[in-house]
Amino acid sequence: MREQVRIAAGQGFWGDLPDAPVRQVEGGPIDYLMLDYLAEVTMSIMQKQRSRDPNAGYAKDFVPLMKQILPACVERNIKVTANAGGVNVEGCADAVREVARGLGLAGKVRIGIVTGDDMMARLDDLLSRGIELRNMDTGAPLSTVRDRIQSANAYLGAWPMVEALNRGAQIVITGRATDTGLTLAPMIHEFGWANDDWNRLAAGTIAGHIIECGAQASGGNCQFEWRSIPDLANVGFPIVEASPDGTFVVTKHENTGGRVDTPAVKEQLVYEMGDPHEYITPDCVGDFATVQLCDDGADRVRVFGIEGRPATDSLKVSISYSAGYKAVGTLVYAWPDAYEKAQVADKILRARLERLSLHFDQVLTEFVGANATHGSLAGEPARDLAEVQLRVGVRGDDRNAVERFTKEIAPLILTGPPAVTGFAGGRPKVEEIVAYWPALIPKSEIKSHVEVIAA
């Protein structure tokens, strides 16, 4: 058993800094590189891509990245865990295998493939057997939106990835696995933790939670003393130095920007936080109220004291469905009386929409620069604001009505208040709305599948 394992975060979302994983591999010693690509809406995007091209449906950025870092990973025995597989894990693995062969690494790389999360083909069977997949927020049964569903994926935990690592995989590719599982799995594999060692499993889960959003734990998007955070242009992504007893240190490579300190780690801990006593994952329930932090030197925060409880008998399901159409238009009004001009323009626009008998589920107006961020909490905007952006959005089931709305923004330039600019990029585009449907399913209904292939 190792005395310490260094797990580095390389991506906090699909679209994060492209060179961050490369810098994690090249910037100093690590044992694992964790890459988190998936958000709730990402799965529906990937399903649409695969419907147009059966070879698509995964994070295409992952493949050229592996081409860039795979030789170093093989040379230094760095393992990779990534949920880049989306809705086409096998296709992603095949693409990586071709990259490995092209690099002359055939026979030197083993790729773990974790599937079983995609439920699209099983929905009708589940519903027919009385598994209603009710919306966790509203209680509505999934049958009410069945004809509009675009994707449905259960969140798998760490254990299928552990199986792949135990079978010799150097690269583990999953679909919709939990963000935290990408970090927890290497700890279980290296330290041999039992599946009922709740305190250690909770510690590994919380370690994963801290680094799952990349540089958000090392100075990025940090509210505390943000002006003093050094060299964010060269921000170092976080690394967990984990020990067998479940304690760990959050740090980053030397000679990188950003900062790892207690305030930054605290901010990430409360990110997406509900009940702090019940952070529920497929692997355990973590109690964030037991987390203890202390500074452990420059850019080092020690985390310890974490307690956990048994996992539940359910898995969360992330479902996306089509919920109509939207469009957003903007204009900028300049001083003097910028806010008043924007208000008058909004009234004119709404009157014209009413005259055209255009009906929407929602018409939302924001005055950016005056009160769009904080709403009524911002108080009355100052009268001498230099500029205010009028931003109006509509949503509804009638695509034609939304399309007609897009034609009413530009005319305000010559038929509304003066000193207007900022109409760039042409007419607003109509976009399909993809809504999120969270649900629970008994664990007994989801069977993961693990395959390990050689490059």
Describe the model.
This protein is an alpha+beta fold. Helix content is 28%, strand content 25%.
**How would you classify the quaternary structure?**
single chain
Number of helices: 12
Low confidence ranges: none
The geometry reads as: globular
Structural class: alpha+beta
Radius of gyration: 25 Å
Strand content: 25-35%
For the secondary structure, the number of strands is 19
- Cα separation of the termini: 27 Å
> Main beta sheet: strand number and arrangement?
10 strands, mixed
Trace the largest sheet across and list its strands: 11-12-8-7-1-2-3-6-4-19
- Look at the structure and give the mean pLDDT: 96
**Fraction of residues in H or I helices:** 25-40%
Kindly list the characteristics that best describe this protein.
455 residues, alpha+beta, ten-stranded mixed beta sheet, six-stranded antiparallel beta sheet
Which secondary structure elements does this structure contain, and how are they paired or packed?
Layout: E1 5-11, H1 20-26, E2 32-35, H2 40-52, H3 62-76, E3 79-82, H4 89-102, E4 110-115, H5 123-128, E5 149-154, H6 159-166, E6 171-174, H7 181-191, H8 198-211, E7 238-242, E8 248-252, H9 262-269, E9 279-280, E10 285-287, E11 292-295, E12 301-304, E13 307-309, E14 314-334, H10 338-355, E15 362-368, E16 387-396, H11 399-406, H12 412-415, E17 420-421, E18 431-442, E19 449-454
Helix pairs in contact: 1-3, 3-4, 6-7, 7-8
